[in-house]
Amino acid sequence: MARESVEQNIALLDKLIASDDVEHIEKLKMLKCWNQPAETEAEILLARDKAQEALNSIPTTASVHFATDLTLCHSWFLQLSGDINGAMEGYSRSIKTAYEHEDIKLIADARSLRGALYSYIGDFSAALDDLVTAQGLYESLNLTGWANINLTDIATSFRRYGDPESAIKYYNKLKELYLKKGNEEQVANVTSDIGIALDEMGEHEQAIENFRFSYQYFKKHRLNNAAAVNATNIAYSLIQLNRLDEAEKYLKEAELEITANEPAAYSFMKLFMGKIRYQQGRYQEALSELADAENAFRAMQNDRGLVQLLQLKSEIYAAMNDLPSAYQTLQQFVALTRKVEDNSFAHQTTELKVKFDTSWIESENKRLLDNQKLKEQELALLEKNKSLQLIILLLTGCILAIVSLFAYKQVHRNRHLQTIALTDYLTQLPNRRHIYAKAEQYFQQALKLQTPFSVIIFDADHFKKINDNFGHEIGDQALLTIAQASQALTADRNLIGRIGGEEFLILLPNTNAERVWELAHELQTLITRYGAINLPVELKLTVSAGVATLKPESKPQDESFARLLKRADNALYDAKNAGRNCVKAAKAAS
Fold first, then answer.
1. What domains, with CATH codes, occur in the chain?
2. Among 98-112, 144-158, 206-220, 511-525, where is mean pLDDT lowest?
């Protein structure tokens, strides 16, 4: 519905609702809060201030639902204005109140909003926890529109989590729904989301086609801010294709609309301009652009974007021969990367498993829905006599049977989500978090039983050249070949994990230093053999490897798996420096 039509309807309701009709006055105030214009920086700040005024003027006799919904509305405009901490605090407070009063719709709304924010700042475990819970509640309440919006955030979380292919499947389903309903604006939004996922898969030309479709729609309908965001997305794809002049043209157009008071879009716009300036050799200008981007990323607490920025910044300093600054920035990059990707990886993986078992989510949602239905039944019982008790018992049995069937289907669906969350989408091996959790278990077991535990960390040599010379499809085939050879070595895929782009980790319980040295060389032989079968003749696939062993009986020893992994990683670094295509053993623990 057009904004003008919404505003006209709200004005009409304002005239029709009686001054003593408290219930409908509260609903009208909620509508007014959520339907404020928020296209420009000035409109967002004004909406935030009006929401704050509405909160401050809530009478003591107001309903809890009204107060909680206004808190959510205010938190939403805080998020749009860049106050992430304030928004997160408001969402969490609203969730607590909604649960206390078993307000199912508000629980779903608050957890959907908080989940989307968690996803943006990179906490995917918490994001999927909130979003999956909200999805179940929306579907149970038959709120299809809200369920579709929430499903978009789930798809986006999978994309950010590193599974763009699954994300595209969700986006395409949503796009079909919106096309059938004739909702052109939502089609444009989802098409833009598909473009981002395609970019992450390296399909930049297809991504540009999607972004331009959305860009042209928003330009045509004078949705200038959304058009500017899509112009920024187009620029990123063009940069990846080294079409810098075209990319700069789109970014300059976006700069006319996006300001520093819109940090979510501004941060990436400035980051991409910094990339262009770097590739043009204009290093000081690049650093200036990145300084603006860094302020915006930090304001939004967007560690994912900040990681990209720090890596680029380090490369710029290196190109300027400012090695101290390059090294310092690289240290910040490494520390932040560990925070984003390895933050208590064993705990986080265990937590993710527990959350995506989702039996507790299903149980809690079922309890809320059952309580709501029971309350409705109690109200009906007050108006009926005792002769209806038998019928009510029969109906309750039917309801329990339906809920049980629903729970069964939900468990199967969420088990699939768990598998996706713990598996690398290309090789189908355990991903970084999964293999690290396994490693922590074997490490603790080795300490307890006083048995050796070894690891091999390795990656493909000159992988960027493989992609550049043979294409990404052959690059993917090379990674699949490495995975196939690794499984032939261990006969257990759960002992192998893909922990980076072309980097893999093999866990070897009850394996001493001499044996792991032999296995690492066998691995190199297998990879070369499989590569000769699966890859072009002119491509010689080799790997460099580092090995390390925990020896519980020797002193000193590794105090944690992270230290053991660090020694193996240093050995891999030594193998790279030694000319690649070799194996190096880690130095003794210190």
1. 347-422 (no CATH), 432-585 (3.30.70.270)
2. 144-158
